[in-house]
Amino acid sequence: MIPITGRVPTRLALANGLGSVAYGVKDSGFATFLLLFYNQVLGMDAWLVSLALLIALVFDGLIDPLIGHLSDRTRTRYGRRLPFLYGAALPLGLAWALLWSPVGEPNFFVLLFSAILVRALVAICEVPSAALIPEITRDYDERTRLTRFRFLFSWGGGLLMLLMAYGVFLPNAMLARDGYRNFGLFGAGLIVVCVSISALGQHRAVAGWPAERAPTNKGFLASLGEIRESFSHPACLSVIAAIAAALTAQGMTFALSNYLYLYVWKFTSTALQAFPLLLFASVVGASLLVGRAQMRWGKAGTVMRMAPLGMVFWSIPLIMRWLGLWAPDGSTAAIAAMFACTFASNTFTVTGTMTLWSMVADVVEASEEQTGRRSEGTLSAGAFLASKCAGGLGVFGAGLILSFAGLAPNTSPEAVLPEVTYRLSLAYVACIAVLAILTMFIVRRFPIDRAGHMARLARLDRVARADPDASGLHP
Known about the structure:
Helix content: over 70%
Number of helices: 14
Shape: globular
Number of domains: 1
CATH topology: Growth Hormone, Chain: A
CATH class: Mainly Alpha
Strand content: under 5%
Number of strands: 0
Distance between the termini: 17 Å
CATH superfamily: MFS general substrate transporter like domains
Radius of gyration: 22 Å
Mean pLDDT: 87
Low-confidence stretches: 470-475
CATH architecture: Up-down Bundle
Order of helices and strands: HHHHHHHHHHHHHH
């Protein structure tokens, strides 16, 4: 396809973004409910659940780059990415439903298999879909605009699942197994519908035989060499490392969120139902802030400012509670103040994360200049690999924090001891503070800014005009 010059039609941007609902549903379930479900409902030890999810990420780590590279080399009359979206939507929905309705007696191996299957199918849907952004446009700011839509739909899908869980499936029974089965069925239907509509909505714009000549047949080792070469650019290494640090903190936050709501803040059912709406409002706020922030500070500068701000506002309530300066747990004043801090924290954090994903698209041309190949799928896969590994590390870290805090399985909120909630809170705050500082340190080394990106596009255009086989057409 020929990249769109100027503003991308909103209809196409919405269709591309809609596909990320599946990723949001998966992220919400894995990060927020899966540990709680298999630990407190099915009775597995927290560390064993965390270990199964971490092992699943090892397999996921092998799958993501291969799917990305395969989609880069795919040539069909539907284009390079659409066949993956059409083929994976229904299997992913079925696998998601089975994850929340395990067949037979749930155990470590059942969870491990289900987690691997879901993660692999999510990769088949999400990696090619995200790789369409640098194909659709090469504009520095339009890529951020398309990324905003993907974030809005991803968060929207995840928060819809939270809203349905707290308001419909688990309103007064967070530990009810039947509620989680219905949660899985609803998510499965949402995944299938959204991924299918996303593919159909982009079909006219992105379908068709790729302009590049067909790649020569290469062996597995040669493909691995191309993947390694694409990942070797300093900009790629920098942004992937920053994504890993930032999303490890996010994964830890999601995994511990229900524990904090139940055992620390003692949310009422009304608060649990309102909380997803607050989070979505903060994502809308981030989508309004991100463009202005990038115009002022650039992409790397935006991340360097947003990461610590998000961490500070999320930590304030927990630190003040530890110091005895917070309103009583479960009171209206405590919940209202916690909501206000969460809105600010999530607005800043999501602004930074949106920016990191937009930076991935800008690495495509930097890698093309170095390797002579466009590797949208491979580079998107690298970012997803980092995010998934980070999410898994976050869940694993959450399991370790829970063990350190001494929160035993099947403990009711009324029976938890104060010292347990203090250990849980302080260990969590220490971890996210370290990760926010690490994110700042890494992203300051990102070598691409607006001027550098525009200059690189001009150089690649001159090369392409002089020799059409010299840019983006290499096997």
